[in-house]
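Entry type: protein chain
Record version: 2
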Amino acid sequence: MTCIEPHAPPDVEKSAIRKILLRLVPFVALMFFINFLDRTTISFAAPNGMMEDLGLQVAQFGLASGIFFVGYILLEVPSNLALHRYGARRWLARIMVSWGIVSLLFTWVSSVEGLYILRFLLGVTEAGFFPGAIFFLSAWVPARHRSRILASFYLAQPLTVVFGAPLASWFINQHGWFGLEGWRVMFLGVSVPAILVGVIAWFYLIDKPSGASWLNDAEKRWLNGELAREEAQKSHAANRSLRLVMCNGRVWMLCLIYFGFIYGLYALAFFLPNIIGGFQSQFNVTFGVMERGFITGAPYLAAALVMYFWSRDASRRGCKTWHIAIPALIGAVTVPVALYMETPFATMVVISLTASAIFAALPNFWTLPTQFLSGAPAAAAVALINTLGNVAGFSAGYVTGVLHDATQGYLIPMMVVGGFMLLSALLMLGLSRIPHAGAADDVAINRAGAR
């Protein structure tokens, strides 16, 4: 029987959360860093020899980028079920080792068809990592501390490109290692850490606070008590809740809002290195591989800083409509405007605004479902929204590539990106103007989840 300590001294609560921030969040963030790097490494390989060596058209590169999400979507639900059955520690470690092995195989890919197969398998093996990591961290802290924990975790995503782009470029410059082309050396170099960290995760991560030797007894009692009390309030009627959530208009508006942000995120992630590679013909300037890596990472450094301070402001004031709508509007305008700039510097400044807008909105967006849903309905809504986001990831890669080949440029593809982000902004404003329109439905869903 769990010993509940509902009114622990403030210093116990503070020290417990601080230890989790220091012991768990950085390691899980490192896992996320490697995860996002491995799924987007193809964008660094493309302009540095891979497209030429494999005979890829931009549309084929777009399909290869996006097909990752097909495997991811198909296996996401089974992977999440397995995570609950076997435990987050074991399953997250298994996922890392599996995707590291598949990522390693890219080193020897020799055809377009092989590239498609490996990207699909990479999605299959990575399936469930992101929601699994969110579930793992959420299982360690009470709800009131989760926004801080998850915002710290989310910083890994923009920082992946800040540090990952120069790292990938360094590997590409090691052309000739083991008799491999530079882009193949890069795949080798970024894959091995996934396998190693996955093995370490098996021994380092702990599923529950009760097993943490670095927490004292008072901290364990407080955490276990808070988490047990929240667990007792959760719904056991998931199937009924899911049916009701599927019929809720607000949830579908959130799906479309998120679709726009994720479409922009992956269009930028997959094609920014190609856009930078085109600076030579567009502006008559030449950048080396390492220079292109640092240029690619610069917008994401700005994005990380903006995300931190924007999320901090949202936590202090409470997340408002404008915390999400303003970044969406800025992203919608800056995406196509960047292509009209007359110097590489001006182009990258505008792209930095785009990246900052996307990352400023994402952590705050995830506070929305729990503003009107709770328990199993909220979990079902988050799963549905995340699935639509993965569809956006596939669409961004494939549609951008097809439109580029059809128009011989990035203007139309980036205008589509801007259009989706504008839709996100308008839907967010619309959602804020009908705060009580779906109240009866929300109450019905939450009551179903409580039975």
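Comment: The chain has two domains: 12-227, 235-436.
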